[in-house]
Structures are given as structure tokens and as C-alpha cells.
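Sat 14:20. Reprocessing the chain from the morning session after the first attempt stalled halfway. Input below, unchanged.
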Amino acid sequence: LSKGGKSFICCSSTFTNKQGEKVSRIRPTLANGSIVTDTRANIHYFVTEYGKVNLKGLSTWQKAEAIISVAHPDFRDDLIKEAESMHIWRRSNK
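Finished this time. C-alpha cells:
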């Protein structure tokens, strides 16, 4: 990053697959073989049509909560369950 620069990842929260199903772009893990173009430490802002969150300096569970907050509402409960099963988010953290 440039001195004083900020990084943004901007995307729609969902897409429609070939079967016509709405799918969340926000996933709990990457599929094997996925290409990563940036590290989690370099991402300052994450933006969807549901808002923007500043991830800089947050703990893992705070990042999970922030990212889930800008996911499509239809997928938030499933993302919370996945984060809980991965032990990176729990309701008692609030």
C-alpha cells in the first residue's frame, strides 16, 4: 500500500448461478485451489450493497461479525453458524 493508502474490496453480496439460485459471495472458507490476491492483513474496507465495514485492527471474531453484517440478510444466519462451528464467532462475544 502507498503511505496513507487504504484498500477496499467491493462486491455485490450475491450472484445468481447457472441453475438460477441466489448464492452468497461471502463464504466462510475458500475452496481448494482458490487464488488469493491479497492478504487479510491488507484489507481495510469491505463493501457490499448492504454497507461498508472497516476491518483494520479488528480481532478475528470482530472481522467475522463485521463481514457478516454486510452480507445479504438471507445468508447471515448460515454465515454465523459456520463462524460458530469454526470457533471464530460466538454470540457471547457481543
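The mean pLDDT is 89.
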